[in-house]
């Protein structure tokens, strides 16, 4: 029974290893630039579309082109 208890204690001690002293140190992220090729430097021309022209904003004053008293119902 003591041997079984010693085995359980040994497994628990080795199975719960934590790096509390941070032996490996922090990992530094390395940045790599893409190769100097035209496919990376220039945008795709087949999928590029120019932005649409801005639309004219209408307001209530410009909307009524029939003049005063015109339109449906005489309003």
TrEMBL record:
What's the protein called, per UniProt? Lipoprotein
Residue ranges with Basic and acidic residues bias: 27-47, 54-65
Q: Region labeled Disordered — which residues?
A: 27-75
User: Where does the source fall among the domains of life?
Assistant: Bacteria
């Amino acid at each position: 029974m003591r041997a079984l208890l010693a085995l359980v204690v040994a497994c628990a001690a080795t199975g719960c290893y934590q790096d509390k002293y941070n032996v490996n140190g922090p990992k530094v992220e390395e940045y790599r630039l893409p190769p100097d090729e035209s496919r990376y430097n220039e945008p795709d021309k087949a999928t590029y579309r120019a932005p649409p022209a801005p639309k004219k904003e209408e307001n209530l004053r410009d909307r009524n082109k029939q003049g005063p008293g015109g339109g449906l119902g005489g309003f």
